[in-house]
Structure formats: structure tokens, C-alpha cells
Amino acid sequence: MFKTILLMLSLSLGASTQAADVAAILKQADAFRLPEGSAQLDTLVQTTKDGQPDREKRYQVLVRGDGKALILFRSPGETGHKVLVSGDDFWMLLPGSARPIRITPLQKLLGDAATGDIATLTWSGDYSGSVAREVDVDGVPCLELDLAARRPALSYQRVVLRVAKHDSRPVYADLYAASNRKLKQARFEFGTRNGRTVVTRMTLQDEVQTGRATVVTTLSSTPRKFADALFNPMTLSRGDVAP
Known about the structure:
This protein is mainly beta. Helices cover 15% and strands 48% of the residues. It has helices at 2-33, 115-118; strands at 39-49, 52-63, 68-73, 82-86, 89-93, 101-103, 108-110, 113-114, 127-137, 140-149, 158-164, 170-176, 182-193, 196-206, 212-223. The strands form two sheets. Strands 6-5-4-3-2-1-15-14-13-12-11-10-9 form a 13-stranded antiparallel beta sheet. It starts with a helix and ends in a 20-residue tail after the last strand.
């Protein structure tokens, strides 16, 4: 009986320790994607078909690191388009409209880049899971995390994320729908910004329509603070609430 109790305590402590480890790994992985926490990002999104360039668009992303982001469309012909993200709620404002319309985080902006992908949403806090195994990705020893969304409103209900074993940088991710259908495959590339190693490019490979890819490149990032009024859908059309 005493041995049984010790075994149960050991298993319980092991599960708690792994959950804490996964939470810490996700925070470290997020720090490579948005090290400033609150920042203005100038972003270029390009699509390819069968390896050939197709289309490209530019966005300015104002992200506050607490689940709030504002995407401003900067390509010719799209002036005035905005997408607001506040937690699980997404709105789009079209030029000339007084009220924004609700959209989903999977609403496509260009190619396979959805609003949730460009808004630089984080994994920590939104996903939980476990370390499934150790794998090698292009010569990089990685931990493979099998993650489940904490809320049904999130873009991807399951994420299989591989992070570098030595520093938890994200290397590769498989993104799944609620039906467990694999939607996209994401690969991350790195550069140096403000003296830190960060994700500068994410390539999304369409797993439904093969031969298509979307590349999301962060051209620049500037640490900034933003007021609450900027993320209010009721004032989204007002020109006096400027970033």
C-alpha cells in the first residue's frame, strides 16, 4: 500500500513538472517571435505557386502582447482596411464603413496567411500539452510538443510544434483544424534584430492545396506602447484614434 501511494505521488509530480516545463518552453518560443511584447511590425506577405512568385501585400501590425492587435493594410488600393484582434474576437473595417464586421481568426488576408498568423498571436497561455518525443529537424535536435487549444475560438485546435532542444526556438509546426485535419505546415527562419535572435520569416505550406506557399516576413520591428482606445471596435472607424 505504501509503495502504491509513493508511485501515485511520483506520477502526479511527474505530470505537474512536465506541464510546467511545457509552459516555460512555450514562453521561450514566443520570445523569439515577439521579444518586445508590445511593438509596431512592418510585414510583407508573399505568395508562390509551384515555387514561382505570385502576389505580395504589405501590412503594419500594432501588437500589444495581451491578445490585442491592429492590422493596417498598407498596399496600394487597400488604404483604410483594418483588422482588429481582441482576445477571441476579430473585426474587419472596410473603407467608408461606420461599423466593423466580425470575422474569424482563419479569415485569409493573402494566400494562406490568416489574420491570426499575421497578428503574431502567441502560444503560451493559449495552448497546453506535453513533450511527445525528441526528433531531429534538418540536423537540429528538437523537442516535439503536442499541443491542444485551451479555447474553441483559437485558429488551430491542435499544434504539433518542434522547438530546438538547446534554446526552445520554434523550428517547425503542423497546424490542425478542430476535425484534426492538417491545414498548414509552418517553418521559421531567424535573423538578428536589436541585438537579439528573432523569427524574421515564417513560411506557410498549404497542406490542402499542394504547390502553394505563403511567406510572412517581418521587415522591421519598433517597440511601442498603445492605448486601450486603439483596440476598441466601436472607435475603429474614427480617424482621431490614431496609432
